[in-house]
Amino acid sequence: MDRPAGFSSRSHVSDRRQSRRGDHPRHRCLLSRPAPARGHTDDPALVAKGKELFDKGVPDRGVPAHMACHGADAAGTGDFPRLAGQHAKYVIKQLNYIQSLVRTAPVMHGIVKDLTPDEIRAVAAYVQSK
After folding, report:
1. Does a structural domain hold residue 39?
2. Pick from 71, 73, 52: nearest CA to 63
3. Which residues span the domain enclosing 112?
4. CATH number at residue 54
């Protein structure tokens, strides 16, 4: 039987064995996923305002720093999710849901209930930029 150059009947067996171990070249990309790519924004002033809110909160209105739970650079800690790199539109939508009690999250409601729409946009822009 004529076979193309480089073809071996054993190559299929080898592929199957490697794929079971997860180290076949076609599967390596699935095993080691990189961290999400940094987002970008056209408004560095909005990101700076968001960083300030994330790092310090709004003490005079009782809004704690978001980094206390979500960690430095929004990387997430323990039970608190990573926010870094999350799309700003998604963060805005979720914070609005929490504020209006559409999404049940009692702890988060207490934290975000007094944020203004501009402050929510700023925090969202900051976490997207990470």
Report:
1. no
2. 52
3. 44-129
4. 1.10.760.10
CA atoms of 90 and 128, how far apart (whole Å):
10
Count of Cβ atoms closer than 10 Å to residue 25 Cβ? 9
Number of domains making up the chain: 1
**Tens digit of each residue's pLDDT (9 = 90 or more) over 104-128:** 888 888 889 999 999 999 999 999 9
**HEC letters along 18-74:** HHHHCCCCCCHHHHCCCCCCCCCCCCHHHHHHHHHHHHHCEHHHCECCCHHHHCHHH
Residue 4 in domain: no
CA 6/CA 1 separation, integer angstroms: 14
d(CA 32, CA 59): 41
In a domain, 15, yes or no: no
Alpha carbon distance 66, 83 (integer Å): 10
Residue 30 lies in a domain: no
Q: Mind listing the pLDDT tens digit for each residue in 62-94?
A: 999 999 999 988 999 988 999 999 999 999 999
Tokens for 92, please give them. 């805005």
Residue type, position 103, single letter: R
